[in-house]
């Protein structure tokens, strides 16, 4: 038990001190127009606030715990900004408004939304500063939303428009990737329920070909999937516990938050796969190829295993990038490095 544990929602792990991963888009849409924040929709007095005038208002400072859906958490980040409701109260939210949609200055029109009452209780900040300095561009500078108490995908970077709505407008990740619209980290509201029928799942498991399929949350625990082909498959949150995956071709598959505990994955190829938040505790990864795979928030061993060496079976034959190992949470990194001494620190 670490002293920080009670502050961490279920199945989250702390990033290394001082680290803050960049997730999703890294820069806003290129646009020459001066930055302004529009308050629109079901308000009595729609407004457009030039960024300079907003920055001139007295800033509120707040210390916030960040919890990303890909299982990393960063506690105690310090932000400076304005309370969203300072602007909403000025604009006069109409009684028909039930949702707030935040739209980003983003090439893909990135957005997210919150239920209005919940939003009021969470009291989001419109943030300009991090640790007393202007917010870094890749973290949403010059201006982003920070909503404490939700997975961080509810905190839009490069905020441009706040729209009050009667009906919800599902956000980018919520619509595209099935992220849960509730996003409560304490209840682990990471993903929507799976869309796959039991029969369809059985048929695919029998075929051993998942390539390029959307099989989010598929339950394949304890199955013999030796030699499975799952190139480019969407396998977020899938259950592969204790599976036989020897020699499987899993290149470019998305395993984010998938369960791979105690699976047999000798000689499997995870090349360029997304293993963010995946749990590989106890998995046999000898001869497996993880080059190019993203390992942010991945787990190779629980705390007991780190002490006793009973985590994932990895050694010098497990191919991994040094840069990906560096992304791991410190105890995971120690575990991996201890088993692959050839890679060094
Ligand atoms: N415009 C925009 N906002 C976004 C995203 C994005 O891709 N584009 N990603 C979201 C997700 S999934 C997370 S976890 C956080 C990441 O913020 P960070 O990169 O500052 O850590 O931003 C959220 N806001
Ligand atoms: Mo995220």
UniProtKB/TrEMBL annotation:
Record keywords, A-Z = Kinase, Transferase
InterPro entries (alphabetical): 5peptide_repeat, OxRdtase_Mopterin-bd_dom, OxRdtase_Mopterin-bd_sf
**Positions of the Oxidoreductase molybdopterin-binding domain:** 27-173
* E.C. number(s) listed in UniProt: 2.7.11.1
Under SUPFAM superfamilies, the record lists: Oxidoreductase molybdopterin-binding domain (SSF56524), Pentapeptide repeat-like (SSF141571)
* Coiled-coil residues: none
| Entries under Pfam families matching the protein | Oxidored_molyb, Pentapeptide
The protein's name is: Serine/threonine-protein kinase B
Q: Which organism's genome codes for this protein?
A: Pirellulimonas nuda
Q: Which gene encodes it?
A: spkB_2
């Amino acid at each position: 038990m670490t002293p920080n544990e009670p502050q961490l929602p279920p199945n989250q792990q702390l990033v290394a001190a001082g680290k803050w991963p960049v997730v999703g888009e890294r820069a806003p849409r290129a646009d020459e127009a001066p930055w302004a924040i529009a308050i629109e929709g079901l308000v009595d007095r729609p407004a457009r606030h030039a960024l300079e005038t907003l920055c001139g208002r007295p800033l509120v400072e707040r210390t916030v715990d960040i919890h990303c859906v890909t299982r990393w958490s960063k506690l105690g980040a310090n932000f400076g900004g304005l309370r969203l409701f300072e602007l909403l109260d000025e604009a006069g939210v109409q009684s028909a408004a039930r949702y707030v949609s935040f739209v980003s200055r983003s090439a893909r029109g990135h957005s997210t939304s919150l239920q209005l009452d919940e939003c009021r209780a969470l009291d989001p900040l419109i943030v300009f500063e991090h640790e007393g300095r202007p917010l870094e561009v890749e973290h949403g500078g010059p201006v982003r939303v920070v909503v404490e108490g939700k997975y961080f995908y509810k905190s839009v970077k490069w905020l441009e428009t706040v729209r009050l709505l009667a009906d919800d407008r599902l956000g980018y990740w919520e619509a595209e990737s099935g992220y849960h619209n509730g996003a409560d980290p304490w209840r682990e509201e990471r993903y929507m329920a799976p869309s796959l029928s039991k029969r369809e799942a059985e048929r695919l498991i029998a075929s051993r070909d998942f390539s390029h399929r959307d099989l989010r949350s598929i339950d394949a625990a304890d199955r013999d999937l030796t030699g499975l082909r799952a190139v480019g498959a969407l396998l977020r949150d899938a259950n592969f516990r204790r599976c036989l995956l020897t020699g499987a071709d899993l290149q470019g598959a998305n395993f984010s938050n998938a369960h791979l505990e105690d699976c047999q994955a000798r000689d499997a190829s995870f090349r360029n796969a997304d293993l963010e938040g995946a749990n590989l505790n106890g998995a046999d990864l000898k001869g497996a190829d993880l080059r190019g795979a993203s390992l942010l928030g991945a787990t190779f061993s629980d705390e007991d295993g780190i002490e006793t060496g009973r985590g994932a079976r990895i050694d010098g034959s497990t191919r991994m990038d040094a840069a990906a190992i560096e992304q791991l949470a410190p105890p995971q990194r120690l575990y991996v490095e201890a088993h692959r001494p050839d890679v060094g620190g």
